[in-house]
Amino acid sequence: MTLTSSLNREAACAQNWDAIVIGAGPAGAVAARQLAQQKLRTLLIERKTFPRYKVCGCCLNQRAINALNQIGLGQLLESAGAVPLNQFRMQYHGREAVVSLPGGLAISREVFDTRLVQSAMEAGAEFLQDTTATIIDSAEKRTSRTVDLSYQGQIAGSATAKIILAADGLGHPSLQNCPGFDMQVAPDSRIGVGAAFKLKNLTSYPAGMIHMAIHRSGYVGLVRVEEESLNLAAAIDRDFIKECAGPAAAVLQILRESGSPVLPEMTDGSFKGTLPVTRRTLRPVGDRLFVLGDAAGYLEPFTGEGMANAITEAMAVAQLVPEGLRHWDSALEQKWLSAHYSLTEGRLFWCRWLARLLRSPTAIGWGLRLFHRFPGMARPIVARLNH
């Protein structure tokens, strides 16, 4: 499924926008849709061409599903062939434990993100892809902000909006020229690694289950998505990747040592990596600027926490933009800080606590023994992440 831009760069630069949203992942696409539904002149910009593969887990937990239902996008998942999830399996050195999930769906990011962008366009947002947007620093208070639009490394013009939403993921490159938005990267941050495979053997990784292979140097998550495909998303120590001479070898080593099946498709697959993933932007707001989704702070995606957070933040910021259009001040910025903290910080604590626990072989071993014998012990943790 392909998408075409609804306007060209020249037309984008010729208009005065209420809001420009940079990044067409779940955070950006949902925010653009919600703004367009309020009859705001909204431009959604994406540097890649759709559909595009993204190194990321493909799970939507119950919190994400509830949010999509709340804004009328529940049918989008069913029509796209999303696969229901009901179990979470952890494997470590031949041991395993299976716990129940309170609901969830798996869907490839190529399909999910494309459907979300389509919904934004249907709501009235304009979409411009294959274009890099860089926010111009503003040293003084103004009534609008400007972004430079580039194509293949060359400036193609500048677009102006009253408010900018930066939702362009890890490292938020759109803010590279804006002081004060540096990301704090954890010293022990792991590298994200991802791949997707068309399966011939459907029994090794059954549908309806999130499979997690755990290793002292990282973990690999696998889940079946639509059309009998398998999505793989991992977080691996940088030193271990070097030791294994590359991300693909590191993933396969983790699978083998955990006791998880290594399929022929995996040895021939193409693996992609990310920047170090555990990072956060210390202040995700500025003059006429909101930062949201992974651009504001990364959540370890055990059961779909990252996408749930992206969607709920998009819904929250869309409620603040009309107020900012009328009058922007520090009180509005504080409202976004409070909303971001409320939506993110508690889950960030739990996700990072679990990530650190998974670095301890002793804790992993005891945890799997307990969860195997008493599956109910895991339910409060799973429920907390899905709330």
Fold and architecture overview:
By secondary structure, this protein is α+β, with helices and mostly antiparallel strands. It folds into two domains: 9-53 and 109-185 and 280-351, 3-Layer(bba) Sandwich (FAD/NAD(P)-binding domain), CATH 3.50.50; 74-108 and 187-277 and 356-386, 2-Layer Sandwich (D-Amino Acid Oxidase, Chain A, domain 2). It has twelve helices and 20 strands. It has helices at 9-14, 26-37, 62-70, 74-79, 109-123, 238-243, 247-258, 264-267, 305-326, 330-357, 361-373, 379-386, and strands at 16-22, 42-45, 59-61, 83-84, 87-92, 95-100, 104-106, 126-128, 132-135, 145-151, 154-166, 183-185, 191-198, 209-215, 218-225, 229-236, 272-276, 279-281, 285-286, 289-291. The strands form four sheets. Strands 1, 2, 8, 9, 10, 11, 19 and 20 form an eight-stranded mixed β-sheet that branches. The model has no long low-confidence stretch (mean pLDDT 89).
